[in-house]
TrEMBL record:
It comes from the Bacteria. This is Diguanylate cyclase. Residues 346-398 form the HAMP domain. PROSITE patterns: GGDEF (PS50887), HAMP (PS50885). It is found in: Cell membrane. It is a multi-pass membrane protein. The chain crosses the membrane at residues 12-31, 326-348. SUPFAM superfamilies: HAMP domain-like, Nucleotide cyclase. The lineage of its organism: Bacteria, Bacillati, Cyanobacteriota, Cyanophyceae, Nostocales. Gene3D superfamilies: 3.30.70.270, 6.10.340.10, PAS domain. Its main location: membrane.
Length: 502
């Protein structure tokens, strides 16, 4: 008989041991994994948030310092005196020489990142610039010219691509230039290489965690900096309206590419920014669509966002090692439990298998076989019970066999009696009660059978008829008893005569 997978006691023991030993271990491993993942995620998120906040503070400090600096620099008297002159008075004047020296001296405070210092008159015309090629340029449409005149405060622009130098991104600081009476005479404009901001963004990535990266987005969610995917610079995370794209391209804040090449579909990130979330977990297409932990910080002086991200797999790498260790421990415990369960099962099932074989032989007909009782436990009690049952069954079978033999003998005797009675009855049926020879019934049956036989064999049939003369007179004279006796003598004589002729 075929057994199912859990048909044997040994298999059930192994399964039970494994369930009892491994389910708590699996439960503990799962709880530990969840707890560790949460702790690691929280720690990584805190590190990213700290880096994002630190970076946003650095950028804010940089902007604030330069806004204050350009505001103070715009108050220098040499600049106001130069702008107070008419265009004809400015050429080769002492005021021009002083203003030029002032601009050059100011630019030397950061020769690596400052591109130029320039003075713009009230019409937005570049009237003095350390980059002499830009002198005379009309900059009246630029926000760094219009905003200071409107607000009368210093201003910082968004990052813009240089129309002349490939891959150069500039950032402008500006402030109104006033005379001693406080009247605005023009605008002092400082052009910075935006690499300085990108460097501030990238500076904290090494301390925020392994393989972490930083992103800077402007108010339109356009990439201004990306520490590992510079190809995304000046692309928006989601498609922008056509009129906005056109305006930004005119301002030099987006390249003149087709709209489909100016966007990157990051819907989940866009939703987080719109809802002012400080963190999220999302995949970023620019980093191979891997799932990342992302922390978001916002600047104070600009509507920009600093994002620090780290691949979730990197943050949870200790969990992966923990899982591998747990799986090794799980396999070791499973192997040990299986061996122990198999040994215990072998020890427990061996007497059961022995007893099963004894029962099989007994049922096969070996009624004399008995189980050896070698223990006093439940198996030993079962063996004793089997022996008692086998003895009782053997006795019952022997008694039953004897009774069957006696009953068989009785049936044989009864059968013989019945056959004898049937034979006598047959004789009585076919013999005449007076003469004891075959009667008319026997004659009719015998005549019918002989007729059919002789017809098949094509042989003649002979029939002898005889009559007793004057029997009635004899019967009347001697009486019925004498007549009966006469008939008996005649029948016997005829029977003897016929029998002797064969």
């Amino acid at each position: 008989m075929q057994q199912t997978f859990l048909g044997s006691i040994r298999t059930k023991l192994i399964a039970s041991f494994l369930i009892v030993a491994l389910i708590p271990l699996l439960l503990l491993a799962f709880i530990n994994k969840q707890t560790t993942e949460k702790a690691l995620t929280d720690n990584a998120q805190q590190a990213l948030s700290a880096a994002a906040n630190e970076t946003s503070n650095r950028i804010d400090a940089f902007i604030d310092a330069n806004l204050n600096a350009v505001r103070v620099e715009a108050l220098l008297p040499g600049l106001a005196r130069y702008l107070s002159l008419t265009p004809k008075q400015r050429d080769d004047s002492p005021e021009m020489q002083l203003a030029t020296e002032t601009l050059i001296r100011l630019s030397r405070k950061d020769m690596l990142n400052i591109i130029s210092y320039a003075l713009l008159d009230l019409k937005g015309k570049n009237v003095l610039d350390i980059l002499t090629l830009d002198i005379g340029k009309d900059e009246s449409v630029q926000d760094y010219f219009n905003k200071p005149l409107q607000t009368e405060f210093s201003f910082v622009s968004s990052m813009k691509r240089s129309p002349k130098i490939t891959d150069l991104v500039t950032l402008y600081f500006s402030s109104p230039v006033r005379n001693a009476e406080g009247d605005i005479l023009g605008v002092l404009r400082v052009s910075y290489n935006a690499t300085v901001v990108q460097q501030l963004v990238n500076r904290e990535t090494e301390r925020s965690g392994k393989k972490s990266f930083a992103i800077l987005l402007d108010e339109n969610n356009i990439y201004l900096a990306h520490s590992i995917a510079p190809k995304l610079l000046f692309k928006s995370i989601m498609p922008l309206p056509l009129n906005v794209v056109t305006q930004l391209q005119r301002e030099g804040r987006l390249p003149n590419y087709p709209i489909k090449e100016l966007t990157n579909n990051e819907l989940k990130l866009q939703q987080a920014l719109d809802s002012k979330q400080s963190s999220l977990i999302a995949s970023l297409s620019g980093t191979g669509n891997q799932v990342n932990l992302i922390a978001i910080a916002r600047l104070k002086y600009q509507p920009w966002s600093v994002l620090f991200a780290q691949p979730l797999a990197i943050a949870l790498a200790p969990v992966e090692k923990q899982i591998r260790d747990a799986m090794f421990l799980f396999a070791f415990i499973a192997s040990a439990v299986t061996i122990i369960a198999f040994s215990i099962g072998q020890l427990l099932t061996k007497p059961i298998i022995y007893l099963t074989n004894i029962v099989f032989q007994f049922t096969a007909g070996n009624l004399d076989i008995r189980a050896k009782v070698s223990s006093k436990d439940e198996i030993g009690q079962l063996a004793k019970s089997f022996n008692n049952m086998a003895l009782q069954l053997q006795t019952s079978l022997e008694t039953l066999e004897q009774r069957v033999q006696e009953r068989t003998a009785e049936l044989v005797i009864a059968k013989e009696k019945v056959e004898d009675a049937n034979q006598k009855l047959e004789q009585l049926v076919n013999l005449d009660g007076l003469t004891k020879v075959a009667n008319r019934r026997c004659f009719d049956g015998r005549l019918q059978a002989e007729w059919k036989r002789l017809v098949r064999e094509q042989q003649p049939l002979s029939l002898i008829l005889l009559d007793v003369d004057k029997f009635k007179s004899y019967n009347d004279y001697y009486g019925h008893l004498g007549g009966d006796d006469c008939l008996i003598r005649i029948a016997q004589t005829v029977q003897q005569t016929v029998s002797s002729s064969y």
